[in-house]
Amino acid sequence: MGKKPQENPQLDMTPMIDVVFELIIFFVVTLVEAQKKDESIELEDGKHGIVLTPDELPPTHMEIDIGLHQSGPKKGKPRISMGDIEITPAEISRRVRERVKKYKDFPVMVRADFAVPHKAVAQVMNACTEAGVWKISFVAVQEDKTHARKRLRKIRK
Fold it and tell me: What number of CA atoms fall less than 13 Å from residue 9's CA on the CB side?
């Protein structure tokens, strides 16, 4: 004998709401991770440069941080990172090539600590140009760095 059709069929929305909440959590967490920056980097003075706000940057731009290791056996040595993940110049070149395939032309923004040796900055620039990107800009701040100069002297001692 067959089942009798229900008069008021109901759709249970609970599983769908659970999935939506999980997606929201996933996107919030990944957005926060993608926007992480190396906060230990002290940028160089840029009083005479062009002032850009985050709203004025193209969405396809790439940011590369060059700082110094703060502790451990590599303390004081250059640290190249993207989104708070340490990477090598070869990895930068690979990532830039992938992005060139997708977007063709985009700017690379380098956030280098003023105390980082030029060799580390040159490695990043070389990795970008090997991958086909020549639009490389340096992020700086419009403030006096007298206290930072004292820190540099301590690092170099």
Answer: 4
Q: Is residue 31 part of a domain?
A: no
- Record the pTM: 0.59
Note every long-range contact of 149-152, with CB atoms under 8 Å and residues 24 or more positions apart, other chains counting. 151/42, 151/115, 152/114, 152/115
Count of the separate structural domains present in the chain = 1
- Diameter of the chain measured on Cα atoms: 91
pLDDT (tens digit per residue) in 58-76: 667 788 888 888 888 888 8
> What CA–CA distance (Å, rounded) separates 16 from 2?
30
CATH number for the domain spanning 80: value is: 3.30.420.270
Inside any domain, residue 62: yes
Is 13 within a domain? no
The answer to whether residue 96 is domain-embedded is yes
Which of 114, 141, 110, 138 shows the shortest CA–CA distance to 124? 110
Asked if 131 and 97 count as a contact pair (C-beta separation under 8 A), the reply is yes
DSSP 119: H
